Input
Amino acid sequence: MVNQDYYELLGLQRGADDAAIKAAYRRLAKEIHPDKHNGCSEKEAHFKAVSEAYDVLKDPQKRAAYDRFGHAAFKNGGGGHDPFGGSGFEGFSDIFSTIFGEFMDPRGAQQNAARGADLRYDLELTLEEAFTGVGKTITIEALARCETCNGKGCATGDKCSKTCATCGGMGKVRAQQGFFVVERGCPTCRGSGEVISDPCTTCHGEGRALGQRKLAVKIPAGVDEGTRIRVTGEGEAGVRGASSGDLYIFAHMKRHSIFAREGTTLIADCPISFTTAALGGSITLPGVDGHKVEIKIPAGIQSSEQLRHRGSGMSVLNGRGRGDLVARILVETPSRMSAKQKKLLEEFRSTETGEECPATKGFFSRVREMFGA
Ligand SMILES: [Zn+2]
Ligand SMILES: [Zn+2]
Output
């Protein structure tokens, strides 16, 4: 961070226009660019200072802040550091956005103080509802426009406000905070610049009161756990007719009896008999759209193998088409059999040759070798 005046550094007058600033910077940059001076540290420092000045003056917002607060507008926590040194530069823009976010736009500050808060509503949906999309009527309990005064805040008539004495109608007050002079919403009038002389008894001049209302909302197809749907202007009412906040609906998914979900893929565990696993066959699944989905099972399938049926999964949010349906095969071993079944299986076994567990292959022969047997 340099201490020299930015305008002075560029050899400019305070009111210089954009073209003059650009021209001055170009001329200086050509003259003192470090590449031309074999790394002379003094020239390099000068070049950095000029670049820093240009970076601020070329940007109308930064320039306005500098005109108003001087170098203090960009000092980070008081440690005058080089804004071009690595992370320091990020700090520079961060502090900058903090400043502007909060108070550089007086209209914005006023609006923010009076604007209603955003609301959150958690909505639980079934998989079927998320698949097709659904209309829901939800009940919201929040600050709403006062019906007694129609949001004006006055006991009688439409206008009962006078200019706030604390801030002189500006809606904001100045205060020293560390190195900054910050402007905040006025605590007396809460940023509106006016105070109510004859307040409505229902809302005490706020123009809004706690109320319950029903709201019809449309949930699009394909929403998933955590999907956020914004309903503009359906949040908390603003102070005395100021704009309302927004409502955010957070989708939550109920557990489904058959399907687990991974994005647009639906996964179902499908137990099949060991004979079907050995000989092949087919299974039928109830699809999320109500249609039956038949899945062919190849002969010799193993437990936990997955069979994919394309286009039978979840709908895609804000898109076309569908994901896949996946059947996860679980081969079931019979625990109860009739005498006849048992006999048939015994017969089947007699045709098989004894198999050694692959994981312990060679184990017995190694033991025999060890004992010289
Ligand atoms: Zn009222
Ligand atoms: Zn005030």
About this structure: Confidence is low (pLDDT under 50) at residues 76-111. DSSP finds ten helices and 15 strands in the chain. The two ends are 86 Å apart (CA to CA). The longest helix spans residues 87-104.
